[in-house]
Amino acid sequence: MFSLLLKMSTVLQSASSAITPFFTSLASGDESSNSASLTAGNTIKPVYVNESCLEFLLMEMVDLMFRTTADSENDKEAVFYKLEMLGYQVGQSLVERFTRERPRFVDTLDVVKFICKELWSIIFKKQIDNLKTNHRGVYVLQDNNFRWFVRMSTEAGGADAAKRAVPYLWFPCGLIRGALANLGVISVVVAETNSLPQCTFQIKIAKS
Ligand SMILES: *[C@@H]1O[C@H](CO)[C@@H](O)[C@H](O)[C@H]1NC(C)=O
C-alpha cells in the first residue's frame, strides 16, 4: 500500500499543476537525486501533487483496507493497524526530509510544536489551531478545519458523518506518531471528531 502511494504520487506529479507539496519528499524520494539537487546550489526542485487526486487516494485507501481486510467487527483493529503503520512510515519520511537542516530540538514540547506548526503547514497549509498539554506527557492538538475532512460529508451529516469519518483519522494518527518517533519521542496517538471538519489528536508520550 505504501508503494501504491509512492506510485500514485509519482503519477500525479506529472499529471497536475496544483499545488500541494505533500509527498514531495516521497515522490522525489530517491536519495541520489536529492543529494544531487542539494549539492547543486542547495535548492530542491518542488514537485507538485494534484490535491484532489491526493484526497481521493486517501479516501480510497481507507475503503480499500476495509474491503480487503475487514469482514467482521474485530477486523476493524486490523484495518486500524494497517492504516496507522502506513501513516507511521509516511510521517517518518516527511520528518527525515524536513528536519534535515534544522538545529536539534530542545525538548518534547519543542518537537510537538514543530509538528503543530511546521509539519502541519507542509502537509495541510495551515497550523494546528490549538495545542494543550497537561505538562505530564499528554498533548491535545485541535484542528478546527482539518483539510482532509473539508470535503467529506454524509447525507445525514452531523454525528453520523463524524462517526463515519473516524477510520480516516487512523492514517494521520500514524503520521503524527511516525513523525514524533523519528524525532526521538515515543508516543501513542489517538484522534476523534465530533463534527466535521473539526478534529482532535491526543498524543500520549511514553514514559521513558
Ligand atoms: C486534479 O485532478 C482532478 C481529478 O482528476 C481534475 O479534475 C483536475 O482538473 C486536476 N487539477 C489540475 C490542476 O490538474
From TrEMBL:
Signal peptide location in the record? 1-17
Q: Please cite one Gene Ontology biological process associated with this protein.
A: endoplasmic reticulum to Golgi vesicle-mediated transport
GO CC terms: cis-Golgi network; trans-Golgi network; TRAPP complex
* Source domain of life: Eukaryota
What keywords were assigned to this record? Signal
Q: Which CDD domains match?
A: TRAPPC6A_Trs33
Q: Could you tell me which Pfam families the record lists for this protein?
A: TRAPP (PF04051)
The UniProt entry, under PANTHER family, shows: GEO08327P1, TRAFFICKING PROTEIN PARTICLE COMPLEX SUBUNIT 6B
- What's the family? Belongs to the TRAPP small subunits family. BET3 subfamily.
**What is the protein's given name?**
Trafficking protein particle complex subunit 6B
Organism from which the protein derives: Diversispora epigaea
